[in-house]
Amino acid sequence: MNLQVKPIFSALRHHKAGTLLIALQIALTLAIVCNALFIIQQRISLLTRPSGVDEAHLIRVMNGWVGASDKDVGPLMQSDLDTLRRLPGVVDAYATNATPLSGGGWATGMHSKPDGKGKRVQTAIYFSDAHTLDTLGLKLVAGRNFHASEVQGFLPNDTLQPPQIIVTRALADNLFSDGHAVGKVVYLGKKPSTIIGVVARLQVPWVASWASNWEGNSTLVPRQMLTNGTNYVIRVRDGQLQKVLHSAPAALLAADRMRVIPDDQGVVTFEQMRAKAYKSDRGMAILMGVICTVLLAITAAGIVGLTSFWVGQRRKQIGVRRALGATRHDILGYFLTENLLIGIAGVAIGGALAVGMNQWLMHAFEMQRLSWPWIAGGVVVLLLLGQAAVLAPALRASNVPPVVATRSV
Amino acid sequence: MLAYYFQLAIHSLKRNKVLTALMVLAIAVGIGASMTTLTVLHVLSGNPIPEKSARLYRVQIDPRGSFGFRPGMEPPNQVSWIDGMNLLHAARADRQALMTGGLVAVQPAQSMLDAFFAPARYTSAGFFPMFDVPFRYGHPWNAADDQASARVVVLSHALNEKLFGGRNSVGRMLDVGGHALRVVGVLGDWRPNPLFYDLTRNSYNATEGIYVPLSTSQVLGFAHDGSTDCWGNGGGSKRMDPAAPCAWLQFWVQLDTPASAAAYRRFLVHYSQQQKALGRFQRPPNVRLRNVMQWLDYNQVVPANVRLQTWLAFGFLFVCLVNTVGLMLAKFMRRQGELSVRRAMGASRRTLFAQLLVESGVVGLAGGAGGLVIALLGLWLVRHRPAAYASLAHLDGAMLMITFLLAICASLLAGVLPAWRACSITPASMLKSQ
């Protein structure tokens, strides 16, 4: 196509304000849309992180005994677990202080030397027993599971120094770069703990950004927390989830009425826990998506409005050009090229604005750095949007008959 | 005169309905989005206790060991049992209270209700007068009750509703955590938002149901529920050992004058020096005294997502404005013929300018009304989101005013450049070219 750039420039010089406004609007839209899409992508990558457990088959029951002192809890917990494991549809169950996606738990530093010396890594502590790996569906990649004899009670004022622990591969890689963690010794306090097994993945209970640097660092300890509140995690067979959701609390209450299972969040599936844990991230992604769409629509509408005005204003000139031999194609090309030129100016400013806005977001909201493909994608989208928006008024311009030139007014 | 301009504006806007609708819609969407997020921000960053917030201070001291010390470090947010009790008994402030959060099992007397867990506040008696807590029935416990670890309890309005059907329950007994406590008071409807005195729990819409003297809660072994910050060889259990090197209590003071605040700060430094001399503290004195709003600000209580959304919405409004400027430019320039005729017949430039501005003001008014509808819809959506602050998102009178002011200012601003451009044309050249 024969690009008539020079006449376009001289025409635009007569419409400085309009040109500037379209370019500015494209620039701002590009800056906002790039960053918004980037935020969407970040949030989505957060909420698709696997927790490492078999979420589709898991239920958590929150339980509190009424009037039981800590030393009564051991036998009560054991009898509850027996009740749960005998239920039809249940594969296995165990009691713990926290689970992935629950948003609350115990985090501590693990050291390579006693008394808080040597290399330190942050880890979540999950209270476990010999049934934990089976219940959660964790994959043991090295070493062995806990033996039932290693599992002990843990009173609130005890110090946590278990002789055996199981860690995640992420934690093992953090502590020992050679990849052989089984048999190595680490310290939660003064006494050594030997790593007896490594599991592939187990997310920490928190999904928030403050835990994102160590979100795969979990430690299983063979201990049962003896306080009057505990969580039971139950794994069910295929298709039995809804049934066990009702039968598990009913069976627990039938066995012993002196307990509290909260109405709200007391019995939940892990899918519900995931939805709750990531609700704000999901909401933010949806909101950003809506804003992007509306913003692009408004920018397109603005381009249509201004170009329509220009076409109306230049009907006579278009008629003259047509009378002098310009084809419809030439007229169409003229308006498309004009928009492309404005668009290019707009995205050039917009690219710089997008980077600037990202810098500010990194500073104020701990965002990550915007990568070039995002800006390039945004540039393409906005240029195409501009061309699409200008098409209808440009077609109308190309339909101006040459006879217009001979009419006055 | 203005009424006539108004009529002219309506007439002119009717002539090109699509363009007018586009402008109104752009302003409405921009204003709607901005007002929705601004209202949420306004609600979340509100003052929970406006009449006293400048006189209530959160106390921070630094009792930690020398391990990990860096100059300029902030002291822990909470205080340990020993320090809290020392400061409480020193009673150097006009009022003071030592408190922490808990979770207790409540066994209702009526057999229809199952036992349940209720969030609780364990506090010294100063809490109620210091925070101006309203009482529906009865009264708070007093310092003597604190001293005696009295078996007393104060219920929230909501919990009294649930347990006793809203009747005056003062004097009744209630089974809390396996112990019989006597109800001495029932609160009125009291919901400070955010829950400034303990931000480690859910910050919004989260007052406790049960209030028990701090001393009683420790004697009866009630479970602590909230953040615990330990140093040295501290444990992270639900029952706190008083001697443990852990900060898990909140200490608030009321200081009525700036002079008494300065004096209290000196007292805290002196206390830290004294404890260091005794060997309990190892770091140089490091104290903070923040009032309520400073405390909320320091803890960044407004969620980052909400702040980000507000910025985004205003960026959005700005694009909508640029868009409106463009459309108004198109609209006004198209009327240059008409304007030239009016100029030629003696209308001053100022008159035409005023007339065009009235036209953009009308667009702003319509946009504001549309924006209000969108904002109400947006807030309705926010209220149906599962966030803790959701139910608080309502438009108040001030926000309603701001909506219309913002819309009209925005549209007038958007009208200035196009109106000026349209008026600055010389009528002769325009008329000749016709």
Write structural notes for this entry.
The complex is a heterodimer of chains A (409) and B (434). With 409 residues, chain A is an alpha+beta fold. Chain A is 49% helix and 19% strand. Chain A folds into two domains: 5-47 and 280-406, no CATH class; 67-257, no CATH class. The longest helix of chain A has 38 residues, at 328-365. Chain A starts with a helix and ends in an 11-residue tail after the last helix. The mean pLDDT of chain A is 88. By secondary structure, chain B is an alpha+beta fold. Chain B is 49% helix and 15% strand. Chain B has helices at 2-15, 17-44, 81-90, 127-130, 143-147, 157-164, 214-219, 258-277, 292-298, 304-334, 336-344, 349-383, 397-423, 427-433; strands spanning 56-60, 95-107, 116-123, 135-138, 152-155, 173-176, 179-187, 210-213, 223-224, 229-230, 246-247, 250-254, 288-291. In chain B, helix 1 packs across helix 12, helix 2 (17-44) runs antiparallel to helix 10 and helix 2 (17-44) runs antiparallel to helix 13. Chain B is elongated, with a radius of gyration of 31 Å. The two termini of chain B are 30 Å apart. Chains A and B meet through helix 2, strand 13, helix 8 and helix 10 of A and helix 2, strand 2, helix 10 and helix 13 of B.
